């Protein structure tokens, strides 16, 4: 405690008389944040495709730089495994000749990743709350160890949740466009038959004599019918809230009547909000530090 007081006193001495400089630095931070936010909003509205691709790349690379610098090997191992599997799944999803099993493979992988990240985030948050209330002391666990464990789990859950959902959205767009019953802008290239699922392009009902999987179907309010797994993957994993064919808005509350599934929708919205903090906040802070360096501010 005495050492901390001495360091605090040295800091006061070092920055004594620099109040005007500090005020200028705070002003630069606020102005940069406001301008950056306006630029990002305009970019997202005018060129959403390039914005999403750059944001995805930022989220993938920026944490890698900091964790490599800090030697966080556990994160680097999980990042490598995630990157290898996701690269393979993305490669399958972006082929011009889309295999009939690919949409299901893509949605299965990203749904699994989504559930794991959701559970990891919840456990991390619970550990942090228990530590704040001192419950860790019952198990004789040091507060700093419990807090480090909880924050680490929370970071893993949120980071891979954000990254996985953005890769899933990109794959969902590409696959649906390849199948031909969906177009992000304009009319679909194919007419949708009542017997075909617009998400995977396969028959909704399988004849007894044919090979295939018998599964539940789901009819949207626009009367279009899909495989239940496909439309859930499209809405939850692919972040789409419209019909894959006619683009009518989907009522998610009606689709997810089970109360245990609703938190997944809320969690997805939380991840969308956190994307800005993960991808762009380090870049903006770096920009502020660069401006301060150029102006000779410390």
TrEMBL record:
The domain of life for this entry's organism is Eukaryota
Task: Give its localization.
Answer: Membrane
Q: Where does the RING-type domain lie? A: 197-247
Keywords, ordered alphabetically: Membrane, Metal-binding, Transmembrane, Transmembrane helix, Zinc, Zinc-finger
**Gene Ontology cellular component terms for the protein in this record:** endoplasmic reticulum membrane; Golgi membrane
TM helices/strands, residue ranges:
20-43, 72-91, 112-139, 273-295
Task: Tell me the membrane topology, using the record's own terms.
Answer: Multi-pass membrane protein
List the GO biological process terms: ERAD pathway
- Return the SMART domains for the record: RING
List, alphabetically, the CDD domains matched.
RING-H2_RNF121-like (cd16475)
Write down the PROSITE patterns for this protein, in alphabetical order: ZF_RING_2
GO terms (molecular function) for this protein are: ubiquitin protein ligase activity; zinc ion binding
Q: From the Swiss-Prot or TrEMBL record, give the protein name.
A: RING-type domain-containing protein
Source organism of this protein record: Oncorhynchus mykiss
The major lineage groups are: Eukaryota, Metazoa, Chordata, Craniata, Vertebrata
């Amino acid at each position: 405690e005495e050492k901390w007081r001495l360091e605090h006193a040295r800091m006061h001495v070092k920055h004594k008389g620099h109040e005007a400089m500090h005020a200028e630095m705070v002003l630069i931070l606020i102005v940069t944040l406001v301008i950056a936010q306006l630029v990002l909003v305009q970019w997202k509205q005018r060129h959403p495709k390039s914005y999403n691709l750059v944001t995805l790349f930022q989220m993938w690379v920026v944490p890698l730089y900091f964790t490599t610098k800090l030697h966080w090997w556990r994160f680097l191992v999980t990042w490598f495994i995630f990157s290898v599997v996701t690269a393979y799944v993305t490669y399958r999803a972006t082929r011009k000749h889309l295999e009939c099993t690919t949409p299901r493979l893509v949605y299965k992988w990203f749904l699994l990743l989504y559930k794991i990240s959701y559970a990891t985030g919840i456990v991390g948050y619970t550990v942090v709350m228990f530590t704040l209330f001192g419950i860790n002391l019952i198990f004789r666990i040091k507060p700093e160890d419990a807090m480090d464990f909880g924050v680490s789990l929370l970071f893993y859950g949120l980071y891979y949740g954000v990254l996985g959902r953005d890769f899933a959205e990109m794959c969902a767009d590409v696959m649906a466009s390849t199948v031909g019953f969906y177009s992000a802008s304009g009319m679909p290239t194919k007419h949708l038959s009542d017997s075909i699922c617009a998400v995977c392009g396969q028959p909704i009902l399988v004849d007894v004599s044919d090979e295939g999987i018998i599964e539940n179907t789901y009819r949207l309010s626009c009367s279009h019918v899909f495989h239940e797994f496909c439309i859930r993957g499209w809405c939850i994993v692919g972040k789409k809230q419209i019909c894959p064919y006619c683009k009518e808005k989907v009522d998610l509350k009606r689709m997810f009547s089970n109360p245990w599934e609703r938190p997944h929708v809320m969690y997805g919205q939380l991840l969308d909000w956190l994307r800005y903090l993960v991808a762009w906040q380090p870049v903006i802070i770096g920009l502020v530090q660069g401006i301060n360096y150029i102006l000779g501010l410390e």
